[in-house]
């Protein structure tokens, strides 16, 4: 059984053996001599970090129109991809390939096959191009995050942007905000409730953006040194958490609850070797019981929270639930017609095909309201199997990395725990939402996966110093 799990998760994979036999990989380092003579390329990783940081700085503030926001992020990703190619050709160090990379290569291959079989090839090709850019973005981040300084720097930039977004959300909660759509059932007790959306113009999208921010700001309380950075981290936790609550996003709340449960388990695993015998046996049950008790008390004492959570179980009586149920009926028909490789990757394909299957003009949709159903529609059961495989392998790589860090008592493990928890939280929200496919969340998702890949036991950690500007930002997050 253990051998089967190792094969499934590629735990016994030897990337170096594959690298030695790969024709494509022979090009890596072909420009190494040029890099050694170039002063600018001596700071290649730092330049890459600046380019990727632009994605985190700009993404929450671009117009929320799906097509426009996607195209803007795509332009940034093209720049990142071009520099990654240059950096890889001029690379002066090897390694960095993990089982996660292999599974995502398979996922890309299935997406390419789906594109070739798509009845809407032009739209599917655009979708494949975007998938390719996201995967290159992951590869770049998995490389950059091998440096603890760059890792702290990029996470710090994201947290500062999230704080700005949350502060505006809090402002909307206090002073009110125009509701840009019917986000609450008009017949419910929350009909007049303001759901904040900040700069992202959608409360569910805002909630998905804030889920990792809350987790990483909690982690920052332990990683950042000095009373000022720690105080800032605590402020981030409070503001981000309050802003998430006033989005009234049920999917995000479910994701947050699942993330808290996983966090309790991972923290217990990290602390267990140093716990007294009693707490080794009872710490986890007590923590889980306390979490459930706090959630139960909150539901009893906060009517708006209770009503919103109970609406999850009201079936078609809730208008939001009813829309999802009707969309899922149409999606089921789409899957039935093309089960293996779907209609092709990308939301443009879905928008083009869905009207043929929708049950009523009242139930129009831009997505399948579930990342797993959306994946099946786009690239079929073969594609969703590859996606689930990559998620399992990523989670397993995270646990392997955590085991290594626990043995070394390396506090950078807190970032890894935060990444795993964020991954679970986003998947929890994505079960009944497709905000995961929006560029603001997709870039965060691949950043999270990149963090996990960077901690894989077979990957060498790199920290050879940074340029003055980058070093200043990094020190603010670690050594203030």
Automatic annotation (TrEMBL):
It is a multi-pass membrane protein. The chain crosses the membrane at residues 43-62, 68-87, 99-117, 123-141, 153-171, 206-224, 231-248, 254-271, 283-302, 379-399, 411-431, 443-459. Pfam families: Wzy_C. It is found in: Membrane. One of its GO terms (cellular component) is membrane. The keyword Transmembrane applies. Its main location: membrane. It comes from the Bacteria. InterPro entries: Inorganic_carbon_transpt, O-antigen_ligase-rel_domated, WaaL-like. Keywords: Membrane, Transmembrane, Transmembrane helix. This is Putative bicarbonate transporter, IctB family. The lineage of its organism: Bacteria, Bacillati, Cyanobacteriota, Cyanophyceae, Gomontiellales.
